[in-house]
Amino acid sequence: MEPQTIRDFNALVANSKFVFALVYRGHWCPFCISHIRSLKALEHLIRHADGETVIITSEREEHLPKVRSATGYTGPAIVDTQNLLVADLKKRDIVDVAISDMRLRKYEHGMAQPAVFVIRQGGTVLYRWAIVPSLMNLGGAKDRPLLEEIWHNVDASLHGKEAVHTTYSTAGVAAVIREKLRSR
């Protein structure tokens, strides 16, 4: 029998024109919180286009209320502590999410690193990106593509148009710090 995390994800895809998914590290990561806030800001546009958003994490479920409180995100969330969904996404060639050994932070099966992907009902991948953790990106924390620019290209694709952006801007440390200061 298929694990619940995979069933939940497949149900989202089956019941939406497309799913805009964001994999995040945890409630403690300011870059993740900022990225989820960006997704929240796009949520109305995505839903207007008959899409659905979802956040996915390998962090224990007890931390999900902190993430929701910090971001205002109320949409679907999948807690995948065993990384079964992440493994399935890789197997299906949807996105290859890096898993870091973070047992000291209580990620028993490793921590899924940041990723963003958009998949159509039927399985066509419209966009995929996954961080490769390195010293230069603070172990997978920074240098994430701006979700607004990804949305512009996904929206264009949904309407049979050319991509708006040929490359994506990234949010750096300064932008996350400014956002953190504004939210206090």
Strands across the major sheet, in which order? 3-2-1-6-7
Number of strands: 9
- Number of helical elements: 6
Helix content: 25-40%
CATH secondary-structure class: Alpha Beta
Q: How many structural domains?
A: 1
What's the average pLDDT? 89
- Rg, Cα atoms, Å: 15 Å
Distance between the termini: 45 Å
What's the shape?
A: globular
| Biggest beta sheet attributes | 5 strands, mixed
SS-based structural class?
A: alpha/beta
Low-confidence stretches: none
The CATH superfamily bears the name: Glutaredoxin
CATH architecture designation: 3-Layer(aba) Sandwich
Task: Write the H/E string, N to C.
Answer: HEHEHEHEEEEEHEH
CATH topology: Glutaredoxin
Give the percentage of residues in beta strands.
15-25%
Features:
single chain; alpha/beta; Glutaredoxin; five-stranded mixed sheet; two-stranded antiparallel ribbon; 6 helices; 37% helix; globular; Alkyl hydroperoxide reductase subunit C/ Thiol specific antioxidant domain-containing protein
Task: Provide an overview of this structure.
This protein has 184 residues and is an alpha/beta fold. It has a single domain (4-182), classed as 3-Layer(aba) Sandwich (Glutaredoxin). It is 37% helix and 23% strand. The chain contains six helices and nine strands; from the N terminus they run αβαβαβαβββββαβα. The chain has helices at residues 4-14, 30-48, 64-71, 84-91, 147-158, 173-182; strands spanning 18-24, 51-57, 77-79, 99-102, 107-112, 115-120, 125-130, 144-145, 170-171. The strands form three sheets. A five-stranded mixed sheet has the order 3-2-1-6-7, sandwiched between helices. Strands 4-5 form a two-stranded antiparallel ribbon. Strand 2 (51-57), helix 3 and strand 3 form a beta-alpha-beta unit. The radius of gyration is 15 Å and the shape is globular. The termini are far apart.
